[in-house]
Amino acid sequence: MLEDCKHLLYMDDTKDDNMEKIVLLGTAGAVTNSERDNVSLVYCAQKAPLGAYHCLLECGGSAAHKLAKLGIPYETLKDIIITHTHLDHLYGLPGLIFSMIYRDRLRTQPLRIYCPEPAVGALTALIELSDLAAHSSFPFEVRGVPMEESALVLENQYARITSTPVEHAPDVPTIGIKIHSKPSNRIFVYSSDTGYSERFIHFAQQADILCHECAGLAKHPIPALHSTALQVGLVAEQSAAKQLVLVHLDTVANDDPAEIVAEVRQHFSGEVSVASDFDEYAI
């Protein structure tokens, strides 16, 4: 309900000249339900005198609607990061671009879309198949990110964003993401879809907020190269994360959040939250 989300509305309403946060647009895995949309996050930054900046991580089917619900103007959405080409992470992309085209006919600034280098062809084909460029006043730039540890995705006055390969499907290159805030010097790390990964643990060291996928309790058969709550707790402990946020939750198993937290606690004693759609975290 919109009434429940009023505190999330566009940051100009806060009268704070400098603010950064992550808002979770969706927290489900592959299957959505009435309470959870596919996983998607938006990095919101405001810095005087530069104004507002937004970067979308993943693009589930309702991304355009969720951004509108938050009151985020399309002109401040400059960058989109897609971590891999599984459908639940990108199928909202053509619809979002379509909405942007018809909402802002005067935009000329490019929309930059970042993905693993091997995925550039697939994302470009998706956009071309939708015939979006023929109707747009602004270009779309699909940029490949090298599949190497601490690869630079983008850097601006607000943040430095880097990536690392993670352990997901062998035929679907996948990256985890780190947002290092320049104003606050705080670090937000997002795992994307991954199994237990020592490389990711190294990448996520000392994260102020670790946002990690959680496919369910260890008692369930978990799909290969996803993470149980027990494994996520171990990752959080070994990376010395200050706060753990669980996303990409299995809406079919629909595990009790208290049981998930209890399993995480077998390894990790820090702050843990089983995220809900529209939760926000200051960075």
UniProtKB/TrEMBL annotation:
Highest taxon of the lineage: Bacteria
SUPFAM superfamilies given in the database record: Metallo-hydrolase/oxidoreductase
Entry-linked InterPro entries: RibonucZ/Hydroxyglut_hydro
Molecular function as annotated in GO: 3'-tRNA processing endoribonuclease activity
One Pfam assignment: Anti-Pycsar_Apyc1
PANTHER family in the record: ZINC PHOSPHODIESTERASE ELAC PROTEIN 1
Protein name, entry field: Uncharacterized protein
